[in-house]
Amino acid sequence: MMKRSDESDPPMALESAELKRRHSYAVSVICLLLLLPLVMVVGCGPLVTTDPQSSIFPEDSDVDTRPEKTWPVERTLVSNEVNCIAADSDNVWIATAKGVSRWERQQDKWHHYTMEDGLANDMVNAVAIDGQWVWFATDEGVSRYDTETDTFTTFRSIDGLASDEVSSIAVDGNYVWFGTANAGVHRFIKPVNTWVHYTKADGLSSNHVSWITTQGNDVWFGSKEDGVSRFDKVSGEWTIYKQSDFLADNDVRDIARDADGNLWMATVAGISVYSPQTRIWEVVSKEDGLPTPYIMSVHISRQSNSRQPSAISGQLRDGPVEPESSLTDNRQLKTENYKTDSRQLTASEVSELKTIPAESRSSQIWIGTDRGLGSCTHL
């Protein structure tokens, strides 16, 4: 495991103590890893593929020509192509390529929203919950849904956006940050209904922003070609980190924050971990035990009363020769393969991992893919 620190790091004596503390902390890091172009993902809960044009069947088959009516799975998603998941105590919001699906957890009901209902566009790239509001990033602007009035408000370039192709969202108190595919980021100041625009000229590493994570006074922006940027909201200063500095790779697909404030960055060459307290970087690679360096998503969850990494009750299906995808827990990078029900979900791209509180001390892990939605119970 490779470790590096900024030139401005505190004394290196802090590194050993900090790393030992972090290694023993009760944090499970769940990484969904893709090893082959075609990935088989199976969760222990119901796996939902619900697009009426879907051709996925409950059993493996070399021939994909059986009539759809032979597959008796209730269709609940507006599209199988899941881009993002957000959840609160009442609802699970699923952003897809054909609109938004909402699952009411207590009533077990599904609702769907498209352009006909007020969405800016049916291609929804990201979703974020902000109190009574739910924000959606689409290919034609930003939509805000008011859960109390059941109405949409849409913001486009005419309203202050530099680009309508919005890729990511992060709620940050009185601010909401929006990353775009080609025009940098926007900060929406809610109390005054004002937009502030930042680009590469201001300090971003790239105008193509793939992910946003907030942490205190800092906002982190991931890109798919130029590493990550850190913005200090107090000083207004920008810091850029690239592969030549500390990152495993400049292609950053996801950023997650654990309970200690450490940032876990999923890249196509492994995981980079950054501690803001010590300013120490670590790179976890295939040599450290990752089945593959190609990491699409990373999610952090905690087990309340344990000093050991928590387990996942569920299963990822083995391929013909080796596991094609896996859930990996904590720093030991122990891969578990599980058994589940007869339903199978074929996926070539995994977009999102999300932990949702469930009954007792367990929680539900939702897996979004380009061919549907799956879930496991996290004990």
Keywords:
379 residues, Methylamine Dehydrogenase, Chain H, 3% helix
In short:
By secondary structure, this protein is mainly beta. The protein has one helix at residues 13-24; strands at 2-5, 27-34, 39-41, 82-87, 91-96, 99-104, 109-113, 124-130, 133-138, 141-146, 151-155, 166-172, 175-180, 185-189, 194-198, 209-215, 218-223, 228-232, 238-241, 252-257, 263-267, 270-275, 280-284, 295-302, 312-313, 325-329, 334-336, 345-347, 350-357, 363-369, 372-378. The chain contains one helix and 31 strands.
Q: How are the strands of the largest sheet arranged?
A: 1-23-22-21-20
Q: What's the CATH architecture name of the domain at 2-9 and 28-35 and 90-334?
A: 7 Propeller
Overall pLDDT, averaged?
70
Say which CATH homologous superfamily of the domain at 2-9 and 28-35 and 90-334 is assigned: YVTN repeat-like/Quinoprotein amine dehydrogenase
Largest sheet: 5 strands, antiparallel
Protein name: Two component regulator propeller
Keywords: Membrane, Transmembrane, Transmembrane helix
InterPro entries: Reg_prop, WD40/YVTN_repeat-like_dom_sf
Region (Disordered): 305-329
